[in-house]
Amino acid sequence: MRLLRRFDNAFFFLAAAVVAFVVLRGVLGAGVAPTPPVFEGGPASLRDALAKAKEQGKLVFAYATADWCGPCQVFKRTALVDPQVEDFLRRRTVPVYIDIDKAPRDAAALAVMG
Questions:
Q1: Structure pTM?
Q2: Which CATH code fits 31-114?
């Protein structure tokens, strides 16, 4: 009877782990998400974004991300490609895309740590 109970517990744990993996894989997606269109043709650096924002009287929307950041990939696949969010960002802000691994100075200026 104890052996059967142990088997049931092990099977339950394994099943839960498989379900968790499948759910996380679905939520996080596979691989690196493409850069959202709202950042295309935008400033190349935080400094450029700040100058452009000052000139236009807008706020800066600095999106700090990294390829290895799972939640960042989800955000790029969901909220940042939503038409209403994209419209808001284009009208009200100067959006700048900051890859913290490629732009460590910008990451440091924003106090972003990876």
A1: 0.73
A2: 3.40.30.10
